[in-house]
Design brief:
This protein is mostly helical. Helix content is 74%, strand content 0%. The chain has six helices and no strands. Helix 4 runs antiparallel to helix 5. The protein is globular. The protein starts with 8 loop residues before the first helix and ends with a helix.
Length: 106
């Protein structure tokens, strides 16, 4: 069992990275690694994983939301806006992308 107060994120990252080594072509494996890296404040390390997830599943708007979120964390606003716009083209009612665009747009 995990000790109370211990940070489970490094353990989760290790588990997700192990899964990614076994399933490098799975978008979900990249997404899981990226999510933990973002929670650890490591957006630059997360970026290649969200980019790969979007490449692996180009019709999945969630991949572009994750890409936009990561790019926004890195201060790459113009690219983040583009990613959120792609997500909305794929799924126009996607509230998360619409709200992110509103926050980022001047």
């Amino acid at each position: 069992s995990v000790l109370q107060g211990a940070n489970p994120l490094p353990e989760a990252l290790a588990a997700y990275e192990a899964r990614l080594r076994l399933q490098p072509g799975e978008a979900a494996a990249h997404t899981d690694v990226a999510a933990v890296l973002l929670r650890l404040g490591r957006a630059a390390a997360a970026l290649p994983h969200v980019e790969q997830a979007a490449r692996l599943r180009p019709s999945d708007p969630t991949g572009y939301v994750n890409l936009g979120t990561t790019l926004a964390h890195l201060g790459r606003t113009t690219e983040a806006i583009t990613a959120f716009q792609v997500a909305l083209r794929l799924q126009p009612e996607l509230t998360e992308a619409r709200e992110a665009l509103r926050r980022l747009s001047p």
